[in-house]
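Researcher: Here's the sequence for the chain we discussed earlier.
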Amino acid sequence: MPEFTTLLFDLDDTLYPATSGLWELIGERINQYMITRVGLPAEGIGELREALFKEYGTTLRGLKVTRGIDEHDYLDFVHNVPVHEYIQPSSGLAEMLASLPQERVIFTNADTRHARRVLAALEISEYFQQIIDILAIAPWCKPQPEAYRVALEQAGVNHPGSAVVIDDSLRNLATAKALGCATVHVGPPAQREFIDISIPDIIHLPDAIRRLE
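Model: Thanks. This is the structure I predict for it:
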């Protein structure tokens, strides 16, 4: 039976419901950045974003490679959103996190500043020992295997099998599983060979971990 020592949590649409609208707002900010900062035409922005996302893992990495943008400028711009208006503390979330004996780490394609704002809005900052953000894993990002290897090393995980990756993204979980991590999908029911367990809401995580063990 595996003994899990570390839980790697995705941030957006994982620790709070994907229906909050926050990620859609960030997506609008990404579009605005591409138009106003990079100077790209508004027509076809959605298709270009999708292409960059598929090829490079994130729009940020794609714009960095193809347009040489400043990462800090991009992250400041796209995360300039009223987080507290979209997400609030969830009943039982803090208690659930406090009950977990494993090390709890945020592993996100956002930056630390955004992660801290989200954790503060949810009133769960104290329950995470570490934040591994997009800058910490540069030049990689999820779902690239190199990003996970860096994150596992930074989290002090000596063997992938002792880590559980919790994420709403199927492609992120596919990489985690391929590297030997246990995987928990958060969101609508999904059955894939790289998902160990799928839960509808993060609040069900303790039960999922017990089933994994």
